Amino acid sequence: MNRDLTVGKPSKVLWQFCLPLFGSIIFQQLYNIADSLVAGKFIGENALAAVGNGYEVTLLFLAVAFGCNIGCSVIAAQKYGARQYGETKTAIYTSLISTGVVCLVLMAIGFLGLDSLLRLIKTPDNVFADCRCYLDIYILSLPFVFYYNVATGVFSALGDSRTPFIFLVISSLANIGADILFVTAFDMGVAGVAWATLICQGVSCVLAVVCVLKRLKKIPSPEKVSAFSWDILKNISIVAIPSMLQQSFISVGNMMIQSIINSFGPAVMAGYSGAIKLNNLVVTAFTTLGNGMSNYTAQNLGAQKISRIKDGFRAGRWMVWSICVPLVLLYTLLGSTLMSLFLKNPTGEAMAVGVQLLRVVSPFYFIVAAKLICDGILRGSGQMKQFMIGTFSDLILRVVLSKVLSIPLGPLGIWLAWPIGWTVGTVLSIWFYKTASWRKAETETQTEAQTEAE
Fold first, then answer.
1. Does the CA dihedral 163-171-117-274 come out positive or negative?
2. Which letter does DSSP use for residue 183 in this model?
3. What angle do CA 216, 221, 222 make, to 5 degrees?
4. pTM for this one?
5. How many Å separate Cα 350 from the centre of its chain?
C-alpha cells in the first residue's frame, strides 16, 4: 500500500514506515549471515574465512546497487510528494533501464578482475579457491541483486515498506533452508552456499519487480508517461553517484581493513568474519532507517513542508536510540553465544577475536545511529557534498587508524578505529544538518512573514 509521508504525526509516521524497513534489512542480512553460519558450522573454519573474505568484495557490488536504489528512491519520492505522478513513473522506468546497463558493466569487470582483486587484499592461498568459487556464483546473481534494490527503492519512494518486508521474510528463511540442504545433503561445499543465495535472491527479485510494475499501473497519470528521461537520469545521478561513491569507498576501506586482518592468519579472519557480519547487521539496519529518513525528507521537501523534516529528525533520533539499547546489551553480554553460532569449534583465538570486536564497537552504536539519521536527511534534501564529507572523514580515519593502531595493539587496534571514526563523522554530519540550506531558507521565509505581519 502506498503511503503519504507528508501527513500525520511525524513520530507515528516514521515508526510505521521505518519499522518494516528495519525488519527488511534484518532479513536481508540473514542472506549473508546464513552463508557464514552454514560455512562455519557445516564445512569448517577455512570455509568461514573464505565466505567472510568474499563478503568484503560483495559489498563493493552492493555499494553500486545501493546507489541505484537511493537515487531512484529520492527522486521518485520528491515527484510523488509533489503529486507529479507521471514524472514519478518516468523516474522509476529510467532507473530500471539505467540499472540494467550498470549491472552488465559491473558483471564484466567482476569476472575479468576478480583474481587481481583477491590478490590485492592478500587472500591466503588456503582459502583462495573457495573464495573465488563463492564470488563467481555471486557475480552471476548481480542482476537479481540490482533489480531487487531498485524495486525496494520504488516501494520506499511510494511510502510502502511492508511489501518488501514480506518478500524478504520468505526468501531469507528459504535461503537458510537451501544453504543447509545444499551443503549437508548435496555436499556442495562453499558453492552450495552461493547457489542457494542466488536462487532465493532471484525469486524475490522477480516477485518484487512484477509487484512494482503492477503498482505503477494503478497510479493515475493523465499525461503521457515517458519511458526514459535524460533530465531525470541527471537528477537521479546527482543523488545516486555520491551514494555509490560513499558505499564504494566504504567497501574499499573495508577491503583494506580486511587485508590487515588477513595478515593475522585464518583464525583471526574467521573470528572477524563472524563478528563483522553481526556488526554490519546493525550498521546496515541503521543505514536503512536513514534511507527511510531520506524518503520522508524527500516527500516533505517536495510538498514544501519543511517543519516536518525537523520534527522527523527528532523522532528518528529517538527511534534509532531505542533500538540501540537491546542490541548493545545483546552484543556486550552475549557476544560469545552469538559467535558460537558461526564456529564449528567455539573455542580459541577465533572466538576471542570476535567477542572482543563486538564488545569494543557495540557501545558506540548510539553515535553512529545518530549520524546515519542525519545522513538520511542530508541525502533526501540533496545536500550530497556535505553528506560525502561526513562519510569520507569517518572512513579515512578508520582505515588509517586501523593500520597505525594494529602495529602496537594487534587486532584490538583495528577495532578501536571504529569508534573514533564514527565519532568524528557524527559531529560533522550533525553540523551539516544544523546548517543545511533548506533550514536557512525556512528561517528567512519565517522572518519575512513576521516582518509583513508587523
1. positive
2. I
3. 150
4. 0.69
5. 26
Q: What is the pLDDT of residues 394-446, one digit of tens each?
A: 888 888 999 899 999 988 999 999 999 999 999 999 999 888 877 665 554 44
Cβ neighbors of 343 (< 8 A, separation 6 or more) are 40, 41, 45, 48, 270, 274, 350, 351
Cell of 42: 557445516
Q: Which residue has the cell 587484499?
A: 121
The rounded distance, in Å, linking the Cα atoms of 350 and 336 is 11
CA neighbor of 70 nearest in space, from 297, 282, 301, 277: 297
**8 A C-beta contact, residue 176 and residue 238:** no
- To 5 degrees, how large is the angle CA 58–CA 59–CA 65? 95
Q: Greater confidence, 39 or 151?
A: 151
Is the pLDDT confidence value at 228 over 70?
yes
Is 444 buried (19+), middle (13-18) or exposed (0-12) by CB count in 10 A? Answer: exposed
Checking phi first, is residue 154 left (phi over 0); if not, alpha (psi -120 to 50) or beta?
Answer: alpha
End-to-end CA distance of the chain: 46
Q: b vs e for 130-164, b when ≥16 Cβ sit within 10 Å of the residue's Cβ?
A: bbbbbbebbbbbbbbbbbbbbbbbbbbbbbbbbbb
Q: Look up residue 347 and give its DSSP letter.
A: -
In the 8-state DSSP scheme, what is residue 141?
T
Confirm if 131 and 54 have CB atoms less than 8 A apart.
yes
> Which amino acid is it at 32?
N
What confidence tier does 120 reach under pLDDT thresholds 50, 70, 90? Answer: confident
Residues 382 and 410: their CA atoms lie apart, in Å, by 40
Whether the CB-CB separation of 336 and 370 falls below 8 Å is answered with no
Q: Report how far residue 97's alpha carbon sits from residue 192's, in angstroms, rounded to the nearest whole number.
A: 31
Q: What is the DSSP string of 262-318?
A: HTT-HHHHHHHHHHHHHHHHHHHHHHHHHHHHHHHHHHHHHTT-HHHHHHHHHHHHH
Q: Rounded distance, CA 134 to CA 255, Å?
A: 17
As to burial, measured by CB atoms within 10 angstroms (0-12 exposed, 13-18 middle, 19+ buried), residue 117 is middle
Residue closest to 92 by CA, chosen among 78, 73, 112? 73
Distance CA 47, CA 53 (A): 10
Q: Which of 58, 257, 251 is nearest to 146 (CA)?
A: 58
Of 21, 438, 64, whose CA–CA distance to 251 is shortest? 64
Helix (H) / strand (E) containing 155: helix 142-157
